[in-house]
Design a protein that fits this description.
CATH architecture: Beta Barrel
Number of strands: 10
Number of helices: 1
Number of domains: 1
Strand order of the largest sheet: 2-3-5-6
Low-confidence stretches: none
Order of helices and strands: HEEEEEEEEEE
Shape: globular
């Protein structure tokens, strides 16, 4: 396996979809239906440690031009994304600011959206 760094286009639309200023995001691969893509969700901003609810979609054939999708219901980072039967699930993670001595807030919430539709995120069962 070879890793590579792919620069995102600097036009306003691509920059608004994903500007690379977050860490601890989650991603998941969506198989061809009709095109393969990668969904990147959440994370926390490098500059201030606040969690994010953003969602960006990267088509495999054109990684340089991400598309902004509907935001998740909860701001989260350090979470897991899973794709199963056309649905992307965002599971767990943290919702506190990523700062020294900040009290951790661990999420037990899960949410989902249909990967191949302009769907909104919906809450599903808690992990408790």
């Amino acid at each position: 396996m070879t890793w590579m760094k792919v620069p995102v286009d600097t036009d306003k639309k691509s920059h608004d979809a994903f500007d690379g200023t977050v860490r601890y995001s989650a991603c998941c691969y969506i198989p061809p239906t009709p095109e393969p893509k990668i969904i990147v969700t959440g994370g926390c901003y490098v500059i201030n440690g606040f969690p994010s609810s953003y969602v960006a979609e990267f088509l495999i054939k054109n990684l340089k031009q991400p598309k902004r999708k509907k935001q998740m219901l909860l701001k989260r980072y350090g979470h897991l994304n899973v794709y199963l039967n056309g649905i992307v699930y965002a599971i767990g993670g943290f919702s506190h600011k990523d700062l020294f001595n900040e009290q951790p807030v661990t999420l037990s919430a899960c949410e989902k959206f249909h990967a191949n539709a302009e769907a909104v995120w919906t809450h599903i069962s808690s992990m408790n």
